[in-house]
Amino acid sequence: MSFFLLYIALGSIAGILAGLLGIGGGLVIVPMLTFTFTAQGFPHEHILHMALGTSLASILFTSLSSVRAHNSRKSVVWPVVFKITPGILTGTFTGAWIASMLSTNFLKGFFGFFLYYVATQMLLGIKPKPTREIPGTVGIFGVGSIIGVFSSLVGIGGGTLSVPFLVWCNTAMRSAIGTSSAIGFPIAVSGTLGYIINGLRVEGLPSLSFGFVHLVSLGGIVMASVLTAPYGAKLAHTLPVDKLKKIFAVLLFLVGTRMFIAIF
Known about the structure:
Layout: H1 2-21, H2 26-39, H3 47-71, H4 78-93, H5 95-101, H6 104-124, H7 137-154, H8 159-168, H9 173-199, E1 209-210, E2 213-214, H10 215-236, H11 241-263
Helix pairs in contact: 1-2, 1-3, 1-10, 2-3, 3-9, 3-10, 4-7, 4-9, 5-7, 6-11, 8-9
Membrane topology: Multi-pass membrane protein
Family: Belongs to the 4-toluene sulfonate uptake permease (TSUP) (TC 2.A.102) family.
InterPro entries: TM_pro_TauE-like
C-alpha cells in the first residue's frame, strides 16, 4: 500500500508537469520507478526496462488528459501534429536499432548539449529569426524521427525536444506546449507497444506485469495524473510567457545535467 501511495504521488507530479510544460512526465517517472522497483526487489536486469515501459504507458493517459485541456483553450496546432506523427512513429519504432549503432554515452552527451543550448537561449531571451517556420514534409519527418528515437530511449513523451523545436520555429510558447502534449500520444503508443512486445517472452518478471509494463504502478500513476494534468494546463495559460520559458529552461538544464552525470 505504501508503494501504491507513492505511485499516486508520482502521478500527481507527472500530471502537473504534463499540463504545465507539455512533457509526458517521464523525466520524473523513470528515475522514481527505478528507485521504487529496486526497493521492491524486482529483478535488477529488468528494472530499467520496466521503468521505461511503464513510463511510456502512463503517458498514453496523461497525454490525452493534457491535450484535452489545452485543446479547449485552442492551443494545439493540429496540422503540425498530423505532419510530425509519421516521423515520430518511425523514430520510436527504430530507436532500439539506432541505439545499437551508437554508444549510449554518445546519445546522452548529444542530448545533454542540445538541452543546454536551448535552455541558454530561453534564459537569455534569444529569439529565433522571424522568418523561420515549421519545415516541409521531409524536414518535419526527420525532426519527428529524432524526437521519437530519443523518447523511446529515455522513456519520455518528447516534450523536452518538441517544445524547444516548435519555439525555435516561431510557434508561440503556449501553443508549443499544447501541441507537444498531443505529439506525446503517438510516442507513447508506439513506445508502449515496443516494450510490451519485447517483454512478453522474458521470464522472471514481477506478477501483474504485461511485458515490461508494471500494471500496479501504472494504475496508481494514471489515477492521479489524469486528474492533475488539467490543472497544469490551466497554470500554463495563467503564468506569464517569460516566466513559463524560465521554468522550462531550468527543467532543461536539470535534465541535461542528469544526462551528463549518467555518462560518468
